[in-house]
Amino acid sequence: MRHPRSDPPHKGEGGRRAPTDPRITAGIVALAAIALLIGGAFAGLILEGARDLSGAASAFDPYLLRVVRFTLWQAALSTLLSVVPALFVARALSRHPRFFGRGFILQLFTVPLALPAIVAALGILALYGRAGYFAAIAGQSWPDVYGLSGILIAHVFFNLPLATRLFLEALGTVPADQWRLASQLGMGARAAFRLVEWPVLRAALPGVAGLVFMLCITSFTIVLILGGGPAATTLEVAIYQALRFDFDPARAVTLTLLQIALTFAVVLALMRLGANVTGDANLPVAPRRYLSAGPTETALNAILIMLALLFVAGPMAATVAAGLGADLGRLAGESAVRQATLTSVILGLLAALLSVTLSLSLIMTRRALSLRRRPSARSLLEHATDTGAGFVLVVPPIVIGAGWFLLLRTVSDDFAIAPVMVVTVNAVMAMPFAIRAMRPAYDAASERHERLCAQLGISGWNRLLLVDWPSLRRPLATGFAFAMALSLGDLGVIALFGSDSVQTLPYLLLARMGSYRTADAAGLALLLGAVCLALVVAADWLGRGEKS
Amino acid sequence: MTPAKDTEKGTPVRLDKVAFSYSEMPFLFDVEFAASKITAIMGASGSGKSTLLSLVAGFETPQSGRVLIGGTDVGSSPPSVRPVSMVFQENNLFAHLSVEKNVGLGRSPSLSLTGVDRAAIAEALDRVGLGGKEKRLPRELSGGERQRVALARVLVRDRPVLLLDEPFASLGPALRDDMLDLLAGVHAEQAMTVLFVTHQPEDARRIGENMVFLDNGMVAATGSVTDFFDGTGPEAFRRYIGAGSGGSRDIARKRT
Lengths: 548, 256
Known about the structure:
Order of helices and strands of chain A: HHHHHHHHHHHHHHHHHHHHHHHH
Structural class of chain B: alpha/beta
CATH architecture of the largest domain in chain A: Orthogonal Bundle
Radius of gyration of chain A: 25 Å
Number of helices of chain B: 9
CATH class of the largest domain in chain B: Alpha Beta
Order of helices and strands of chain B: EEEHEEEHHHEHEHEEHHH
Shape of chain A: globular
Number of helices of chain A: 24
CATH topology of the largest domain in chain B: Rossmann fold
Number of domains of chain B: 2
Helix content of chain B: 25-40%
Helix content of chain A: over 70%
Structural class of chain A: mainly alpha
Number of strands of chain B: 10
Distance between the termini of chain A: 56 Å
CATH topology of the largest domain in chain A: MetI-like fold
Number of strands of chain A: 0
CATH superfamily of the largest domain in chain B: P-loop containing nucleotide triphosphate hydrolases
CATH class of the largest domain in chain A: Mainly Alpha
Largest sheet of chain B: 6 strands, mixed
Largest sheet of chain A: none
Radius of gyration of chain B: 18 Å
Oligomer: heterodimer
């Protein structure tokens, strides 16, 4: 009725007043860099495929189908075995907000995130393997852990704690008043679960399950080490074998395209289910007191938490025990070990720096765009900065590595570009995690500061130094440490590009395993695990120290 | 106490057929705020009070129409160059910066402050009663003190228009009275044009001179505060305030 449309509205309301926000430029540059990395890989694949079309086509054989089936099957089982127990462990932990060792357990549950897959795989072998601690007790009857069982144990070891923490965060979003209300209305454990806890858990479930499934479908190192043969091979490992052992590029192209198609299909299916493939924000888990659990429930919860704790702590303890059994003094003196350590640290630092820079650019751009728009339409660019980063998980490092490997093998010496590949691919791979560590803090800070900054004219460098940096220091440190830990422990890209001249710690570890120098491998695993862990702990502590 | 010290050099604010829409809700503002007066802006939740302030501050851009401050159309200027300061209900301060620095940002967005600036900051902090608390962080202050810091920044910024978006809504009655007195005092000295969004009739009665009443995205009525509370105000306003005519009992009690 009173809505004059006689005056034509000014075009581009947002752009009319604001000069181009530097944050948006940063995001475009970051996206372009990522696109170049992924685009180059695809170019390599397509060129190679076009060169040997029949070879690529003939790669479709029964073996390939078996590989695809196994890839999906192990991922589905891993997800089920990680997520369902995690629901109950998270609930148990949330029901007992204060008990001795709770903080320790939560800390311990973050360790697998920082622990390189190769270290965990060795820990699992040291505990469950034929020559492991359990077998030593059980004797001859102890079954072999190689194959599906080993893969599942490793995947659950990684993802049960992750899922538990994510569910615990979801439970932490239940407002305190709802708990007060529940206790006032006299809800028992069962009713409270059904009416208070389950709704938030169910809402988180597709996201968590989707994330775990994605991680399992693209898991490389675990399958490479614990698969133990062609019967338990996934697409990723098959790509690696096609390139490094069979020298069959055409086959690698087919496998890679299949892997991409598969992961995209899964992501689309999950998004239909409403899953957030990038996972949710890492909120601090604040203990609270509300409903008190009865004695039976307390006992059950204690058993549940204890079992989860043992399962997660077991391989870590085995890693430490086996590692201490190695001749650490001699290892430390070896020049190959020293060289690999130095290489790992330098490449890790560079990858972390690049990762955090790219992530921050995307975070700032996404925020700037979402502030600028009307509540309705989101631009393609905003989508790209938002979910785009998560999609990086869909294109696994091996795939990118394989693409570049194929593209560059005609142009130059593949092994010469190894450092560049390791840094860039690991940086991009760590982005979803870095973004998850930083975005909530940035968005929250922006929520508080945006208008104030606009009003006071604080922008550009001033804003970065005076406003953003102080509130982002801690999450940046966390993101950096995370990216570095991931990069240090990565075996995917280096497995393709590594050589005697460019060796990282995980590569050296793999080589030692391959030549059956198990004690050396255990010692290196301990070193690698300790470094990654120390990084995350230090960054956490540093960030906290700086704040106060 | 009626502060208003009329000065000729005051800056009027005018919204000339300003159209805007947010989530399908259309707004149309056509109203003038007298120079150097305190105008209370009231209206139910969602009637457009905050939107109106955002349009003047530059956080939102009109789809059509003009935002005139002192006769200049500022509709396309970014917020920081408009001759306005704003105090929000909360989040007026950067939590990691000291009181002094938070005020200093009103002088320089890069905190490169001269001796003159520093003197002005110290003076402003004294004026709002925060002398000696320069080095404190916002979390070491009470809610009222934080709003005083925001007010100190308004003083050092020294812009002719002041926008207040329910700045005292989360304060208790006594604190609120103190803040209103402080605001009235500051206004008496600086004679800025104040647009004061509030839900509290006492706020308007205590320091407001004019009233703009919004209803459903439009200006429903304007006039002097006295008229509004005399019971001659528009029907919609009387309904909003509650009680039959002539203001609520709450107010009647406050007077005695």
